[in-house]
Amino acid sequence: MTAVTFALPQESPSSLGDDAAIIHTGVGAASVRQRLPAALDALTSPGFLVASGFAGALDPELKVGDIVVDRLTSDPELRQRAEAAGALLADFTPSDIVVETIAQKAALARRTGAQVVDMETRAIAEICAARHLPFLAVRVISDSATRDFPVPGPVLFDAARQSPRPFALLAHLATRPASLWPFVHFLKDIRQARKSLANYLARLLGP
Question: Is residue 137 classed exposed, middle or buried when 0-12, 13-18 and 19+ CB atoms within 10 A define those classes?
Fold first, then answer.
């Protein structure tokens, strides 16, 4: 049995086969620490865990749909397996918030030397290390380093309630019509990223 985590159902395929258990951790490290231990306790001796889902690019060379594997936290043998399946090796850095602007992404890249940012990988890796559970971080780029996030993160998602905010989003777009086309482009990128990740995980975890 392989445990595969995603922050939200919108990131994950409906199934990865009979030998994979999908876990939704919620967004952010605090939600991971609250939800993941009990979810792992409910599984029967998983062989390893794959932390998956969406990530933001800090390196302009990374494109939406690229699959990246974390050099820093991933088990070396699993990392080699991920690279053999087509993942690009990268250094991940954690963030407690969505890194929204091109300038913020560039500043974070300079400060950390990382090429990828996400909100859950580091916390999941720490829980797996405490359980001596082999760990692999493989994510898909859903947000380019060369484009601003189309709307503020808190408008899209309520982190405290772990739920989307559709009415806040509609109000934001209604009062800022210039944001509409970038948001449509963002939705297209999300669909592309989700499809790319599903295809990759099928190769990685398939027979």
Answer: buried
SS3 per-residue string spanning 137-173: EEEEEEECCCCCCCCCHHHHEECCCCEECHHHHHHHH
28: left (phi over 0), alpha (psi -120 to 50) or beta: left
Among 87, 84, 81, 206, CA closest to 141: 87
Asked if residue 141 lies in contact with residue 87, where contact means CB atoms within 8 angstroms, the answer is no
Instruction: Please tell me the pTM assigned to this model.
Output: 0.94
- In angstroms, the CA 120 to CA 93 distance is 10
Lookup result for tokens 């739920």? 163
* Angle at the Cα of 20 from the Cα atoms of 14 and 23, rounded to 5 degrees: 65
53 DSSP assignment? S
Cβ neighbours for 53, distance < 8 A, ≥ 6 positions apart:
5, 6, 7, 8, 11, 12, 118, 120, 139, 140, 197
Q: How many helices (H) and strands (E) does the chain have?
A: 7, 11
**pLDDT tens for residues 161-206?**
999 999 999 999 999 999 999 999 999 999 999 999 999 999 999 8
